[in-house]
Amino acid sequence: MIPALYGRSLPMMSGRPPMTALRQWMQDDLQLRNYSDHTIRAYLHCVAEFARHFHTSPEHLGPEHIRTYQLYLVQQKKVAWATFNQAVCALRFFYHTTLGVAWMIEHIPYPRRQKKLPMVLSRAEVAALLTAPRNLKHRAMLTTLYAAGLRVSELCALQVPDIESQRMVIRVRQGKGQRDRLVMLAPRLLQLLRQYWKQYRPPLWLFPGRTLTAPITHDSVRSLCRHAGEVAQLPHPVFPHMLRHSFATHLLEDGVDLRRLQLLLGHRRLDTTSLYLHVASSTLQATPSPLEHPDVASVLDALL
Fold this sequence. Notes:
By secondary structure, the chain is mainly alpha-helical. 51% of the residues lie in helices and 5% in strands. It has a 3-stranded antiparallel sheet with strand order 1-2-3. A hairpin with a 4-residue loop joins strand 1 and strand 2. Helix 2 crosses helix 4, helix 6 runs antiparallel to helix 8 and helix 6 packs across helix 10. The chain starts with 21 loop residues before the first helix and ends with a helix.
């Protein structure tokens, strides 16, 4: 018997299995559409939390329940919008694909996306952060995040053969969107990784967790970044994605074009990459203020 996701067993409805099998059914639907393991776990968790909130099966819950739950997430739990959107995506998939109730989609709307500029570290702050850990493994992980612009999931999934020193590239396997890509392997990063490998000798995963048979967890990397930021006495909390933002911004400031940066970051759309134009200081400095126009400046200079 497959363990229940949403509570007690229910009778067959619309050709679907009883509720004790719905978890497996939804998981199969996600796997058939090539969703990542991380997304599958997240979607299953979101639907389970929705059912747990009402203490009943989602098959018995309608549009008003979904609206009530969405307001609960926003008003009471005060979840981040990324968390809210993940719950919306999970519920839309569950009702549309797993239960085959297409008309429910219009009752599970997406919120308007908040457009926030990414938090970026200065180059001096990056240097302070990368030299903060005394542990060689920790220093190697932070440096790899920044030097290659990796997502935390991509760092955790790195294997030893992915460091291709002869070609001076790092192979990122099945990144976001299930896409492979290559990123540059900086000579200083290669030197650091060689020192790290000589000391730790990881057999498969480049950065294993507590056991050599499993990679380090996302939470461990987040904790490492936060602690290193505190040791470096940076004025704000540090998260892994902040190093990816800094990688992209610093490359733009060094003259790397948007298309090349898009390939390095693994973005599907160029407008996602163009967000970094708003935080690159070189872009801002290259745009003269209207205050400097001769017609305005000459009048102001006469008053100074």
